[in-house]
Amino acid sequence: MRRRTFLTTATAAVGLSALAPALPPSATxxxxxxxxPASGARTAPRVLGERAIASGALVRPELRFDLIxxxxxxxxxxxxxxxxxxxxxxTLGDWQDLHFHTGGPEHLPPSATxLARAPEDATGxxxxxxxxxxxxxxxxxxxxxxxxxxxxxxxxxxxxxGVTTLSGGSVLRLRxxxxxxxxxSLRFDEDGNELWPAQFHxxxxxxxxxxxxxxxxxxxxxxxxxxxxxxxxQAWGDIGYHLLVDPRGVVYEGxxxxxxxxxxxxxxxxxxxxxxxxxxxxxxxxxNIGVCLLGDFTDELPTRAAQDSxxxxxxVLCALTGVDPAARIxxxxxxxxxxxxxxxxxxxxxxxxxxxxxxxxAEVFDTAIRQRVVSGLL
Length: 378
Fold this sequence. Notes:
Strand 21 and strand 22 (339-343) form a beta hairpin. The protein has six helices and 23 strands. The strands form seven sheets. It has a five-stranded antiparallel sheet, covered by helices on one side. Helix 5 (304-321) crosses helix 6 (359-375). By secondary structure, the protein is of the alpha+beta class.
């Protein structure tokens, strides 16, 4: 039998009281990044980008680059788009398939993007099958050092609600935006106005994604790269995911929520929890929490640590919001009123025409993730 309400109001009040000391109002209110290391502050390099337009020709950026992004309108995406890289030896590598997925804030046209990790000694790249697409070569290591202050990690807890998980207990531990080095200046225009003001809606669903890009050894840099592409290159003003999970199972705070609680407007209560609207599934962004795994799972599965962490994340989010992971729901877009039947805990491809979160992972998602989430909440 499905348990549609995982926490009673009384139990929730007890379980969520533990959040108060863990999340003071200033816990995630990061100050805008400043150039140069401040005394005792963490530092991270500013992400750099160099743009081009896809024409099928070889592109040799002036800056050293770690990855490239290909972005175009969803209706323009054609099968067979590929990329290859030129190395310092002057040789061209093998062609690699580009895996596009559609996202973006609801107030902007949707964008289909694909990411590809460049070899260490890449000097150029060539994209075919996507003429006219916007290309960005991204450097995550050589920009000026920015200083960050504020708490590096915070927690969301449903411990007292009786939720159990396979790893990490019932506490969702997050690396904050300040902790991974979010350049908060990217969220504002030249006049200091926020580019993507926060909207909040009662949570109806959770959706899982992958970045479709090979990761590096520096996963905070991977998150900064995705943030830069979303916030600056695509002009969204922020990252499109609420949370991100790296191969080691570390969870990163994504979209800025505007307060002291990641993801939510205030301390969440089941059935009442309001999440900030992000940009991970165009047309389904409102009231839908997006969790993204770092990596490309087209042909391989996420690490065991990443899968266990994702299960933990989804269980705690379900407990905090009252979303039933075993349910098929009528998702109602709070902005348009359009109703769509879908899984409460869904894969990105369940909502839109996309390969995300990768063919290999998508095939085992029900047993490897959803059923484990359900079993931990019954």
